[in-house]
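Subject: for your reference before the review

Hello V.,

The reviewers asked for a structural picture of the protein, and I figured it would be easier to keep everything in one thread rather than splitting it across files. Below is the amino acid sequence we used in the manuscript, unchanged from the supplementary table.
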Amino acid sequence: MSLAHRISASNRRRKWGLFLRAIPPTPTMTVLDVGFSDREYSPNDNFIEKNYPYPERLTALGVDEAWELAERYPLVSAVTYGGGRFPFSDKQFDVCWSNAVLEHVGGTDRQAAFIREIKRVSHRAFFTTPNRRFPVEVHTRTPLLHYLPKSLFDTYLRLTGRSWATGGYMHLLSESELRSQLSEAGIDDYTLVKNRLLGMTMDFVVIANCD
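And here is what came back from the structure prediction:
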């Protein structure tokens, strides 16, 4: 396993431990995972599906068809949608979990709408997103250049064969931008945890009361 994958695995285990302490699972607690991956490219993918102790209480929501997910995790309910409004009723879930999805849903308006949907369908939420100010862009493993305007960073990515990460693929947030999005979405009762690597904030965890 590469160093990057080891760091990612350690970071996800740390966030998982934080989740277990903040929102201890119970046999009756309903949980929505927003942002599953049908095809797993690393052992870190679909982390909650791999580790949640009551998979029959877990619903996974994503834009992919759930062919492989259904085979791997037969007790998990999988729902596919086209983005936008979640196909669930208000406060249908006790908890919403979403790991590193917010940066992929689009620009400012779509990110605020995504957080509003998390708030609408759940009583509590636990979601994460990378820190734009961390010196390495974690998706492409690129140091510093993501500080440039997005158009310039996208040009660099195309020139280096990483066009998959350009355009709408990611819109990273700083702490102040994330707090602004939370306010825009109507969430003001939350804890913001900073996951650090070598003393620098690598990503943020939001633990929110959505009632």
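For the response letter, the relevant points are probably these. Helices lie at 3-22, 47-51, 67-72, 108-121, 150-159, 175-184. The longest strand covers residues 200-209.

Happy to draft the paragraph if you're swamped.

O.
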